[in-house]
């Protein structure tokens, strides 16, 4: 299995876990929806940055 596939799997797991945590800890439906959207966006942006850093690191080593 390639490193890229493993990383994508790990990142997908982190996103899913974050969203489930927000849902489990939420109150009203509308508030939960806003939290999920905000947290999802934050997590997506953070993961994009980490993925880019990882790719740069891997490219520098080759």
Summary?
The protein has 62 residues and is an all-alpha fold.
What does this protein structure show overall?
The protein is 89% helix and 0% strand. With 62 residues, the chain is an all-alpha fold. The two termini are 18 Å apart. The chain has one domain (3-61). The model has no long low-confidence stretch (mean pLDDT 79).
Architecture blueprint of SSEs:
Blueprint: H1 3-24, H2 29-61
Q: Which keywords apply here?
A:
62 residues, single chain, elongated
Regions with little confidence, pLDDT below 50 for 5+ residues: none
Share of residues in helices: over 70%
Provide mean pLDDT, rounded: 79
Percent strand equals under 5%
Number of domains: 1
